[in-house]
Amino acid sequence: MLTGTAPSTQLVRRVNASAMLKAMRGAGVLTGTELMDSTGLSRATVISICDELVRLGWLQELENQRGTGEYVKGRPARRFVFDDGAASVLGIDIGATKITTIVANMAGTALSQVTMPFRTYNVPADERADVLDRIAAEALKKAGVAADSVLAVSVGVAAPVSRDGEVLRAQEFWKSFDVRRIVSERHGWHVLLENDANLAALAERWQGTAQGVDNLVVMLAGDRLGSGIMESGRLLHGQLGGFGELGYLDHVDGVGDTYGIAHYAALWGREAMDSNPTTTLRTLCGGNPEALTAEMVFTAAADGDGPARAALDRLAQRMARVIGSVSTLVNPELVVIAGGVAASAHALIPGIKEEMTEFTFTPPRLATSPLGDGIVSLGAIRHALDYVEEHALDLYPASLPKHEAAG
C-alpha cells in the first residue's frame, strides 16, 4: 500500500493545482475563501497549494491593507493573484504555404502574431526548420518575450496526430520533417503536436461562437476540408489520431473528394466565366481566369451576379452533403465553418440549411467562425496552456530561477 501513496498524493496535488490555476487565470485578486468556493477544495488544500504556486512563481500574494478604519474580526484574509506574465507559450500553425505563430502570456492573451511564407514540398528539412526558427524569433521579439520564458509550444499540422502527439507515419511529408524533435532539440522547449482541425475546435470552443457547446464539429474549409470533433467537451482522436478525418468523402455521391470551399468557389467561378461572357467575375479578375479567387466569387454573388450565385448554390449543395454525412455519424449540436474562408462562407449557410435535411435526420445548428485564419494558432495556444496547467508543479516560470524552484 505504501508504494502507491506518494505517486497518488502527487497526482492529486497536480490535479488540484491545475484546478486552482484555471480558477485564478483572468479572475483578478482572489482570497482563499473565494478559491474554496470556485474549486470545491478545502481551506487547508487551497492554502497549501497557493503557497507552493507562490514559491514556483505562478501566483503573487498581495499585502493585506485594511485601511478602512473599520474593525474586522480575526486575521485578514490572504489574497492571491495569478501572474499572467510569469511565462509564455507559442502556438504555431504549419500550413501548406505559410506558417503563423502566436506568442501568448499565461492568461492566453496574444502578445504578437507573425506569418511567413512556407514551402512544404521539395525543401530540405533543415531549411524548413530554419524558417520555423526565424518566425519564432521574430514573434518573440515582437512580443518582447525572452526565449527562456517559453514553457510549451503547440504545433498544428494537417495530418492525423495520435493522443501521444505522434503524426501518422503514412503521411510522407512528416516522415522527413520531425518538427517536434527539431524544435525541441534547437530550443529546449517542450513541443506538443496536434491536428490542425482539432486545434481549430479548441479555439472555437474557447473564444469563438462555440463557447459553452460540448458537442461540436469545427470544419476547416479553405482549400481542403478537415474536421475537429468534440463530444461531451472532449476532443476525439480515435485509435491512431484519425477521428474526424474526411477521406471517406471520396466515396460520397455529390462530393467525391476533400477539396474545400475556397477551391470550388474559384473553380466553379472560372467555369461560370467560360459559359457566361457578361458575368461580372470577368471584370473582378481583370479577364484572367487564373486570377479569380473565392472572395471575388462571393463578392459578385452578393452584388447579384447570376452565374456567381449559381456557383455558390452548387457549393451550398455540396457542403450540405458533407455536413449531413458528418452529422449522421457524430450528431453534433453545432457545426462551425472555420478558417480564412469563414467570413465569406456565411453566405452559404441559408442554402446549406435548406439542403441539409435531405442528408441527415439530425441536422445541427450552423455557424461561421469569427476567428479568421489565425484559428489554428489560437487553438495551439489553448493546447499549450492546457499542458502548462496540468504540469504547473513541474514547470518553472522565468520569474523564478529554475534551480531555486527545484530546490
From TrEMBL:
InterPro entries in the record: ATPase_NBD, ROK, WH-like_DNA-bd_sf, WH_DNA-bd_sf
GO molecular function: kinase activity
Keyword field contains Glycosyltransferase: no
Gene3D superfamilies according to UniProt: 3.30.420.40, Winged helix-like DNA-binding domain superfamily/Winged helix DNA-binding domain (1.10.10.10)
Pfam families, per the entry: ROK
Entry keyword Electron transport: no
UniProt KW keywords: Kinase, Transferase
Family: Belongs to the ROK (NagC/XylR) family.
Protein's recorded name: NBD/HSP70 family sugar kinase
